Every structure is written in structure tokens, then in C-alpha cells.
# Entry
Amino acid sequence: MNYFPLLMNLDYKKVVIVGGGHVARQKAEALLPTKAQVIVISPTVTEKLQQYIQEGHLTWKEKSFEPADLDDAALIFAVTNDEEVNNAVEEAVQHWQLLSRADAKGRVDFINPAVVRRGEFVLTVSTSGASPGLTRKVKSDLADQYGEQYAMYVSFLKKARQRILKKYTGDEKKQLLAEILDPKVLEWMEQGDVQKCEAWLQQRIGEEQ
# Structure
């Protein structure tokens, strides 16, 4: 299967997770950084899911699955350990809705990659289901290589880019956009010296300090 990779905006969209076990928890946790309206359909849920529900991150419908549960859902996860229930979910899915079945049987419109998040910096890894072990290993390697400082670093780059685009055009703009990727800026960020990064940027783009 040749999957098409993309990052999807799920803000304020309905996402339904049918199931309340370990896999359902994983899917819910992957959705927590978004502003999606996440609804869990299951007679029971894990303790961790219960915590997310109590904290207001998820909505739980303590019941068995019914086709109407999928009304207006953009994404649907069928993640129960009951093939009949997963089949029922698939049968109820509309042609425009996207379905992921954890048992990889029947219709599978998408799969979730492993994700390393550093603020707006998002790294994803997938072997398209061929080797989950390798996916976990590469994710771990990336998490070590790109530490938490990258959240602040990317935030700085974003703001620097906006200031450059506002003031410069043409070759000068291109040159400055390349210069803000100078390795020493990342080094200062790793040291927590944001002020040095800001002073350097102001000097480079001709802003008064």
C-alpha cells in the first residue's frame, strides 16, 4: 500500500473513536494536541481514558456502537477487539468519511504515523504497517536528535521569517531567510540564550535594539 502522507487540520471537527481499550487510548492521546471534538463510544474505558474524559479533553458515550454515532464525523477509528463491531462501524461509514480499523481488515483509509512533536515542529515516521518495531526505533532516535529546545527554536524561526518577509524582498529576503538557519542560532537556543538570538536577528535585519 502506497499511502499519501499529509498533516490534517482537525480543529473543531468531530472525530469518533469506537472502542475504549489500549488502542483507543493511543488514538485519543495522538488527538490531544489538536482542537478536534473527540468522542469515545464504548461501554467501558481504560483508567487513562477516564482521566482524559474527566479533564474535559474527550466526550464519552457509555454505550454500544450505533450507526448514528458517526453522524458528521470527519475521522473514525474502529479500535475494538470485536470484529463484528468493527465491521458494523465500517458498514455505517459514509463514502466521504475516513476510517481507520486497528485490525487492518476491510476498509482502511488511513493509518497513523509515529509522531515526535516539538511545538510547531512535527516529525512523523511510518513503515506503512510493515515493521512497527522499526517505526518505534526511528521515532526514539528522532526524539533524541531533536530535543525539546526545537519548540522554542522553530518558534523563533517563525517570528524571524515574518519580520523578514515584512521588510525585505528579492535576493536580500532569500539571503536573510538562509542566514537565520545559522547553526549558532540553534546553539544559543540550546543554551537558553534567547536574548542573544534576538539581538543577532535585530542586527542582521537592521532593527534598532
User: Anything to note?
Assistant: Residues 111 and 129 are 8 Å apart (CA to CA).
